[in-house]
Design goal:
With 215 residues, the protein is of the alpha/beta class. 35% of the residues lie in helices and 17% in strands. The protein has helices at 3-16, 21-29, 40-54, 74-82, 95-109, 150-163, and strands at 63-68, 86-92, 125-127, 140-144, 169-173, 187-191, 198-203. A seven-stranded mixed β-sheet has the order 3-2-1-4-5-7-6. β6 and β7 (198-203) form a beta hairpin. The radius of gyration is 17 Å and the shape is globular.
Length: 215
């Protein structure tokens, strides 16, 4: 995505995600950031690497993707458009963002270019606290540090790492759990870029880990 396209996309996102000042304050008081999307090129890069790892032995299997702190849901659309293998899900703590995301998915599903196999069920967008969510159904878990409160972000990550299934890949952006604690959470780096504040981790147990990529 070039600079001009990114600029237009971000402007549309910010306009659609706009909340009244009092709602923003309440959202941040709860310990969460207001909707701040990751640069789309970075997300696409991470997702394509994860797909390469997970589809290496079976290019036809379906993969459940979840955006943890999905906001208005634009990453759900990007993920679904990138690969027919992906079934998009999202969880978000803010009810207004969830309503906006569901509306966006309705519009997305009506596109003439959108086939049945890339439709996003609005029921896949969950209103809830990710710190209490069971992440075992998902193959790809993505987050961009949705919690403003560091302690709550650590709680969120701990729940995600604890409940993620073996072999799941975690696209972690601005991870707050210390790297020295990774073994305690049974996660290991599957891909680490030369530079950047993100890493793709794999949930591992025993010797069942998929082959690592080197940066």
């Amino acid at each position: 995505m070039n600079y001009n396209s990114e600029s237009v996309f971000r402007t549309l996102e910010e306009a659609f995600a706009d909340l009244p000042p009092e709602e923003v304050k309440a959202h941040e008081k709860s310990g969460a950031f207001k909707y701040i999307p990751l640069h789309h090129d970075k997300f696409i890069e991470q997702l394509c690497i994860a797909l390469g790892l997970l589809l290496a032995n079976d290019s036809s299997k379906k993969l459940k993707f979840i955006d943890v702190g999905c906001g208005i849901g634009t990453k759900l659309m990007l993920a679904a458009d990138i690969s027919y293998n992906i079934v998009s899900h999202g969880i978000e703590i803010n009810a207004q963002y969830v309503a906006k995301a569901k509306k966006l998915m309705e519009c997305y599903n009506k596109k003439k270019l959108c086939g049945d196999n890339v439709r996003i069920d609005s029921e896949n967008i969950i209103l809830g606290d990710a710190r209490k969510h069971d992440f075992s159904p998902y193959d790809i878990l993505y987050f961009y540090c949705p919690m403003l409160d560091t302690a709550k972000q650590v709680e969120l990550e701990a729940q995600l790492y604890k409940t993620a299934k073996e072999g799941a890949l975690i696209l972690a952006n601005l991870k707050k759990v210390m790297d020295t604690d990774d073994k305690n959470h049974s996660i290991k780096a599957a891909f680490r870029p030369i530079s950047g504040s993100w890493t793709i981790y794999e949930k591992v147990r025993g010797k069942q880990a998929i082959k690592r990529l080197r940066s």
